[in-house]
Amino acid sequence: MGRDLGLDGVVDHFTLSGDEAGWLRNKTGATRLGFAVQLKFLTWRGRFPRMRMELPPDAVEHVAKQVGVDASELGFYDFTSRAAKRHRSELRDLTGWHECTKTDLVKLVSHLVDVIWHDERREEQVRAELGRQMRVDLIEPPTAAQVNTIIRSALHQADERAVAEVAARLAREEDCPRRLDALVFTDPTGDDTEPSDSAAVDGDASEEDEDDVESVLSDIKAHPGNVSLNSLLDEIKKLKQVRAVGVPATVFTGIGVQVINAWRAGACASSPSHLRRFDAPVRHVLLAALLFQRQREITDTLVELLSSTVHRINVRAEKKVTEAFVAEFTKVRGKSGLLGKIAEASLGAPDGSVRSVVYPAAGGEKTLKDLVAEMKATNAEFARSKREVFKSSYSNHYRSGLMKLLGVLGFHSSNDQHKPVIEALKLIERHKDSSTTYLPLGETIPLEGVVRKDWMEFAIFTPTRGPSASCAPCTRRASSRPCATDCAARRSGWPAPTSGATPMRTFPTTSRSGARSTTRSSTSRATPSCSSPISRARCAPSYPPWTPSCRSCRG
Length: 555
Prior knowledge:
Layout: H1 6-13, H2 18-22, H3 29-45, H4 57-67, H5 82-95, H6 102-116, H7 123-136, H8 144-171, H9 176-181, H10 197-201, H11 203-221, H12 229-245, H13 257-269, H14 272-277, H15 280-328, H16 335-348, H17 354-362, H18 365-376, H19 379-408, H20 419-430, H21 456-459, H22 480-492, E1 506-510, E2 516-520, H23 533-538
Antiparallel strand pairs: 1-2
């Protein structure tokens, strides 16, 4: 017997309505119960029971009570007899259910194609949709072999329809099919010509062209290697190759991910020689799906490589600084007693030299060096040293790759909190090809919310001479001298010079003895020597930034 349905299931599916009870008026005994059981099983499962074992016992008891027949009478009803078949025919006339015909098969396949062509390829889901539609159309399920035939036919026609739709969209894109064919054909037109004598002579050249074509496609299919600058550059190259084909994302609008993944898997499993054997629409769709998915995957890979590369730089910097600190660090014991000895010796010989008084009291110069090394080995000093190594490693090795990365990836955010970071990335993008070390004057530089406080000293250049660090726009120049000249021009009310050759400017400094002296600022590479006629003319009082201090310029 079948499994019990429970009270709710029995009431929902095996309760006879008034009309259904009227259909039993001329039947008695086992025939009456068998007829009623077949009727309710049909409305429940969409088919007739093949044997008594399929019927839930509690459902049989429930129906037996409604028709006034003992449930044990069902044992005398043969579901394979001529009477049972006549009952099924009568029930079809009463309920509207009918056996599946050839016309029904065609309609079911057409319905499945309309439903699944754009986003479904799982057989179990297609089978469930087929059963649902047969219940809607009151069609009894055909044999298992026929059901499998319907599903296979629907999946095949659905794939053909999807391929035709995407191929038509690709054909409307200018030169897109030709660029796709260029991935598998040495001749982008894709024309297969018979080999001739000239082709035999140029066989080596054609083989080289074919190898180049296959290498491009294999590069696109390849997965990234370990985290390194070379892997980053390889992925950037792949992304550029994929974008060069120019497959628009709109050609896959409305197409499910499962369908695109199936096409992509077909393209990955096929070599260029196999792809050349496909019909042009199929070949174009498979290659387009591969490039569409690979573009997304490579983009995600580049983001992961960016994060991994930054993490790697940080780990290597920490390791290098740790090794350096461990190498020079020697813990000095008894620092309190050592300090007392140094104080006592200093008070005993206040006029003596450090080497003759302090060194002997401290136990030698090495002890003091170890003490200094220990004092430097703090969290702040360690973190700063690590940032220095990080900056050096980035500037000397990784910067070129990361600048290329900014050229192929676009960063966007709708969150106002992240807008400073987006503006900073745009600023870097604008100046990524510049040969100068510092950003030009007048550029708006977002620092708040972008650069952490502990990195500010590496992000802002403050000259040791000239204007103070509070002159924010001037601290981000290629050198301190033109920055200082611009500040002097603003203080005097004249506009800052716009050319790279700015006049020399001297600034007063104070020596250790307290005497004021005049120190000439360094000149930039773009500034000619004052000995040239041009510089002498610019050093004249008629030049706006000229000050009386320029008289001391010796050229």
